[in-house]
Sequence to fold (380 residues):
Amino acid sequence: MHKPLFDHIQKFISLEPSDIDKLESCLEISKVKKKEHILEEGQICNTMYFVVKGCMRQFIINSKGAEQTLQFAIENWWITDYLSYHNHVPSSFYLQAVENSEVIAIDKTVLESLLIEIPNLERYFRIVTQKTFGAMQMRIKFLFTMSAEERYHHFNDNFPEFVQRVPQYMIASYLDFSAEFMSKIRAGKV
Amino acid sequence: MHKPLFDHIQKFISLEPSDIDKLESCLEISKVKKKEHILEEGQICNTMYFVVKGCMRQFIINSKGAEQTLQFAIENWWITDYLSYHNHVPSSFYLQAVENSEVIAIDKTVLESLLIEIPNLERYFRIVTQKTFGAMQMRIKFLFTMSAEERYHHFNDNFPEFVQRVPQYMIASYLDFSAEFMSKIRAGKV
DNA sequence: TCAAAAACTTGAACTACTTCAAGAAATTCA
DNA sequence: TGAATTTCTTGAAGTAGTTCAAGTTTTTGA
Fold:
C-alpha cells in the first residue's frame, strides 16, 4: 500500500488527484527481508527508498572489518546515498533491512521527470531534505559535545521504543562507541 | 553583486529573465566583518545565507566554554540553521564570519513565497540541499572510520588552500580533535 | 523443540586522545 | 611601529574510551 507515503506528502503540500495518479503509477513497493541489502558498497545508487514499514539502516564496513551504522530509517523516512544518487558515483555504503520491511522504491530517472511535471512534489522533497539536514546538524552537535554516556542517555530518553527495537550493537555504533562500552554504560559500570 | 548566486543557480536549472528580476529584487547583500555574528544561540533563524565572498562558520560553545566549529561555508555555499528555520525554534548555533565576508541574505517569508512562484527555484534548492546532504553523509563516515591523524591528512589533501586560509584551531575542532593534538600531528610528533 | 546462530556481558590490559600550563610566534590595528 | 591580542607549540600527566577473549543469554528457524 502506498497510503503512508501519500499521507506523509500531504503533511507538507497538497497534490491534485491527477498528480496522485501520476505518482502512484511510478511507485513500486517491495518487501525486504531482515538483513537483505538494497544497496551495496561499490554500486551506483539510482533509487530513493521510502520506509513504509520496518527499519532500514545505512552502514559501512570499516578497516577492521566491523560494521558501523551511520543512519537509521524507520516508518515515514526516506533513505538513499545522496552522493552516489546525484553524482552517479559508486556508493561507499550498504543499505540493509534491520527488520523485515516494506519500502517504496522510486527510480531516479522516473522521479526526476516526475518532479518536473509536479512542482509541488519538488517542494515536498526540498522541505523534507532540509528538515532532515537540520536533524543531521543536531546530530553532529551531539556527537561533538556529549560523552558516550551522555549520548546513550540522550538517545534512550528520546527514542526509548527504538532502543528496544534494534540490536544494541547497532545503536552503539550509530552513537559512535563500542558495543562493549554500551553494555557497561547500561550496567552502570562506567 | 548578486552574480555569483545567479551563476550558481544556473549550474543546476535555468531561470526566465522575468524570474531573475523577481529573485533579484528579493536579495539583500551585506558585508559581515570578521568575527561578526549573523546568528546567535537562542535566536530564531529566519534567513538563509549565500556566501558570495569570504568564509562563514557554524559553531557552538560547549559545556567547557570552548568554541566548537561544526560547519564551514565558503564562496557559493549556503548556510543556515535548518532546524531553527523550518521549525521556528531557537537556534543551538552561532553563525559567524571567519573572514571579512559578503553574504546574500534571503528572508524566509520572502523566499518561501518566491519558491511557490518559481518552481524551478524550488528545484534548485532541492538539488543543492540533497547534494549537501550527500557530503554530510560522507563526513559522518570519515568521522566514524578515520583516526584524528587520518582525518587531518585527508582534509589537508582535499582542501589544502582552505587549511591555509582559516585558523588551525577551527579546523581542529571541525575535525573533532584538540588544537594541541593538531599541532602535534603537524609536527609529526604523534 | 532444540541446536545453531546472534546478541550481550565482563574484566583486564591498553591507547588515542585530552587537559593543563607556559612560552613562542604571528597577526592586528591604533 | 610596536603593544596587545590572537594563534600555535611543547611536554607531562591523566582519562574516556577501545580491544581482546571468554563466557552467558537470547533469538531464530528447520
